[in-house]
Amino acid sequence: MSQSGLSQKQIDQFEESFSKNDKYQLAQNVCNGHPLAEMLASRPLQQSVQHCFNNTIEKEGQPITDQQRSGRCWIFACLNIMRVPFMKKYKLEKFEFSQNYLFFWDKVERANYLLHAFVECARKGETYNGRLISHMLRNPSEDGGQWDMLVNLVEKYGVVPKECFPNTWSADNSHRLGQIMNNRLREGCSVLHGMVAAGKTEAEIETAINGMNEEIYRIMCIVLGKPPRTVMFQYMNAADKGKEGETTGAKKTHSIGPISPRDFYHQLVKPDCMDMEDLVCIVNDPRPNNPYNKLYTVEYLGNMTGGKPTLYINQPIEVLKQLTIKSIKEAQTPVWFGCDVGKHYNHKLGFLDLKALDFQLMFDVDTLKLGKAERLMYGESLMTHAMVFTAVNTSDSGAADKWRVENSWGDKDGDKGYLVMSDDWFSEFVYEVVVSRKLIQDPSILAVLDQEPVRLPAWDPMGALAH
Fold first, then answer.
1. From 73, 121, 164, 339, the catalytic residue
2. Which of 39, 170, 199, 427 is in the most buried spot, having the most CB atoms within 10 Å?
3. Strand partners of residue 392
4. b/e map of 253-287 (b: 16 or more CB within 10 Å)?
């Protein structure tokens, strides 16, 4: 019987090559006793990168937010851009919208969406061991999301100040909640598939789904709190400033309400702070089978039955950059974006840079041989996280060289929670930005929204959710 696997001759060659190289020996000694990310960190980059930008929005949100041990970044990033004009309007020094409020309604609505999706799949003959259902059941109640899911939630349920619906332990530490939710949805999928196979009526199936939804709502109320029907927001705004910056009056206290969360958004936020329906998602998917200037969607990527579908306008990366610069410089508006945050990221220093981690020096390997399209095609990269652009540094020609990023991981890393992203990193690992329609002067881009969207399969990497 021949020997399986690597031959002894091959292993001897590998060992000899490793043992002869003093650099490998030193690298082994260093990496055996220290965190790998710290050993890969580039010292030259640390000495050259500074948190200084020549184009910034007038006011950044305060305080820096922290999603803790949860996958709510997409919600945090949305509310972080929403609070900036709201703080300016009401002269607030610090303010947060309730992330827990949107998290609650996403869990409830997404459960209902998935239960109906399971029924639809069963009627199409999809089985539990097929690729589609297997994908949908992998983590049906994950925390992450996409931009159009936020539009669905905010337009229907509104928003509330964080003081009116604060975080709970399970909002900040969502792993166990996710396990419970996955259990209920997987069981629901089994029951509904059985009902379809048994020829149960539409009314019988809807009754069963209603019971499952009530169970989900009950669990959410227990762990996240029961969301308020009305809120009373009390705040103290900043003292007025004179022409020379001197204080001309004392701080004043104000009250808003009682008001419903939906009216809070539609009356106080949407008209002159931020209109969710005005914002569109522009993506960069350079795969050869997905041409630019086309509209895309992903099967079963949603969180609300009958709600807005998740739509992407595919454009070259330079279009994403130009629109982001325009939003920051001209509109003084921060920009929600999605990226693959785990790639070439010095967490402690807050650097998103292709030179942030020196794999070549440590391992003699080049981790950037694949292009952006190939990384998507071969599972090496996809969108994993949502954050906010608040500033950009540009040359005299208008080209960017670095970007300032507001994260939602607390204030310990980078510049008190703010990161620096190189423009090269933007090109390789930013996948989508959300900007106002008013900033898009090229009518052909918005015209893409009139197209019938190309439907990508549920497991396509463009269906990845930001955590």
1. 73
2. 170
3. 55, 403
4. eeeeeebbbbebbbebbbeebbbbeebbbbbbbbb
Q: Residue 3 — very low, low, confident or very high, per pLDDT cuts 50/70/90?
A: confident
> Is-catalytic flag, 73?
yes
Among candidate residues 112, 303, 314, 407, the one labeled active-site is 407
Number of alpha carbons in the 13 Å side-chain half-sphere of residue 413: 18
Structure tokens at 296: 């895309």
**Residue 224 is part of which domain span?**
55-239+251-463
The tens digit of pLDDT for each residue in 409-451 reads 999 999 999 999 999 999 999 999 999 999 999 999 999 999 9
What percentage of the chain carries pLDDT values higher than 70?
Answer: 97
- Total domain count for the chain? 1
Q: Is residue 46 part of a domain?
A: no
pLDDT band of residue 243 (cuts 50, 70, 90) is low
| Cis ω before 63 (30° cut-off from 0) | yes
Tokens matching residue 332: 């003084």
Domain assignment present for 28: no
Would you say residue 459 lies in a domain?
A: yes
pLDDT tens column, 224-235? 999 999 999 999
- At residue 97, the pLDDT reads 98
pLDDT tens digits along 338-379: 999 999 999 999 999 999 999 999 999 999 999 999 999 999
Q: Is 407 a catalytic residue?
A: yes
Q: What is the CATH number of the domain that holds 219?
A: 3.90.70.10
Structure tokens at 138: 């992998």
HSE-CB of 206 using CA atoms within 13 angstroms: 3
**DSSP states of 109-169 as a string?**
HHHHHHHHHHHHHHHTT--TTSHHHHHHHHSTT-S-B-HHHHHHHHHHH---BGGGS---H
pLDDT at 12 over 60: yes
| Per-residue confidence (pLDDT) for residue 142, from 0 to 100 | 95
Asked whether the predicted pLDDT for residue 400 surpasses 70, the reply is yes
56 within 8 A of 328, measured Cβ to Cβ: yes
Whether residue 262 contacts residue 269, with contact meaning beta carbons closer than 8 Å, is answered with: no
Which position among 193, 344, 347, 385 bears the catalytic label? 385
73/441 Cα distance (integer angstroms): 30
- For residue 50, being part of any structural domain is answered with no
Using CA atoms, how far apart are residues 5 and 256, in angstroms rounded to an integer? Answer: 71
The span from the CA of 141 to the CA of 136, in Å, is: 10
Range list of H helices, 225-309:
261-263
The pLDDT of 44-56, averaged and rounded, is 93
**Tokens representing residue 219 in the block:** 């669990």
